[in-house]
C-alpha cells in the first residue's frame, strides 16, 4: 500500500461491485490515481472536467487571456496541466507553467500528495529509423519517413 489517498473506482459507481477484471481497481473498489496507470478516459470519468464556458468548445482552457485567468481563479486542486514532455504529451495535476499546452478544471479535486501523470500520447521512434542517416524509410506506412510517430493513447 502506498501513502496516497485512494479514490473510489469510477467503474464501481452505481452500487455494483467491481470484479477482479476491473482495469482500474482489480476488484478493490478503489484505486490510487498516482500509482495506477490511468488513461485519459478513466481520468475524465473520475475527475469530471468542466466545459469551457468561454469558448463553449470542449473542456480544455488556453494558456492566455480570459481562459487562463479563469483557470487561475480556481482552486489549484481542481486544476490540471497538459504539458509537452520529451517523449510525449502528459496531463498532470496542478497548475504548471513549464511546457504547458492547455489547462483543465475538474469538478472533483485531486488530493494533497497526489502525483498523477496521464499519458496523452507518446513520441515513438519508428522501427524503420536509420541512425546513420537520421531518417526513416519514406515507404514506411507508420511514420512516412519521419523516423518517429505519435502513439495516441485512448
Ligand atoms: Zn473498479
Ligand atoms: Zn499511490
Ligand atoms: Zn517508419
How many individual β-strands?
A: 7
Distance, first to last CA: 27 Å
Q: What percentage of amino acids are in beta strands?
A: 15-25%
Query: How helix-rich are the residues, as a percent range?
Result: 10-25%
Write a brief caption for the model.
This protein has two helices and seven strands. It has 154 residues and is of the alpha+beta class. The two termini are 27 Å apart.
Describe, in plain words, how this protein is organized in 3D.
With 154 residues, the chain is of the alpha+beta class. The chain has two domains: 1-36, no CATH class; 50-152, no CATH class. Helix content is 10%, strand content 23%. It has a five-stranded antiparallel sheet with strand order 5-3-4-6-7, with helices on one face. A two-stranded antiparallel ribbon has the order 1-2. It binds zinc ion (3 copies). One zinc ion is lined by residues 9, 11-12, 18, 22, 24-25. The site of one zinc ion has 7 residues, from loops.
Keywords:
binds zinc ion; two-stranded antiparallel sheet; alpha+beta; 154 residues; 7 strands; globular; 2 helices; 2 domains; five-stranded antiparallel sheet
Can you lay out the helices and strands and say which pair or pack?
Layout: E1 7-8, E2 30-31, H1 40-47, H2 65-72, E3 79-84, E4 88-93, E5 100-105, E6 117-125, E7 148-152
Antiparallel strand pairs: 1-2, 3-4, 3-5, 4-6, 6-7
This protein binds zinc ion (3 copies).
Amino acid at each position: 500500500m502506498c501513502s496516497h489517498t485512494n479514490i473510489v473506482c469510477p467503474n464501481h459507481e452505481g452500487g455494483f461491485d467491481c470484479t477482479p477484471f476491473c482495469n482500474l481497481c482489480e476488484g478493490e473498489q478503489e484505486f490510487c490515481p498516482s500509482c495506477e496507470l490511468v488513461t485519459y478516459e478513466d481520468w475524465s470519468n473520475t475527475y469530471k472536467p468542466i466545459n469551457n464556458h468561454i469558448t463553449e468548445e470542449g473542456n480544455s482552457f488556453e494558456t492566455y487571456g480570459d481562459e487562463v485567468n479563469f483557470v487561475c481563479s480556481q482552486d489549484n486542486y481542481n486544476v490540471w496541466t497538459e504539458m509537452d514532455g520529451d517523449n510525449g504529451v502528459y496531463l498532470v495535476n496542478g497548475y504548471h507553467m513549464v511546457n504547458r499546452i492547455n489547462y483543465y478544471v475538474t469538478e472533483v479535486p485531486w488530493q494533497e500528495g497526489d502525483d498523477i501523470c496521464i499519458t496523452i500520447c507518446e513520441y515513438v521512434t519508428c522501427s524503420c529509423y536509420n541512425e546513420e542517416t537520421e531518417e526513416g524509410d519514406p515507404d514506411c506506412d507508420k511514420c512516412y519517413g519521419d523516423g518517429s510517430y505519435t502513439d495516441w493513447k485512448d
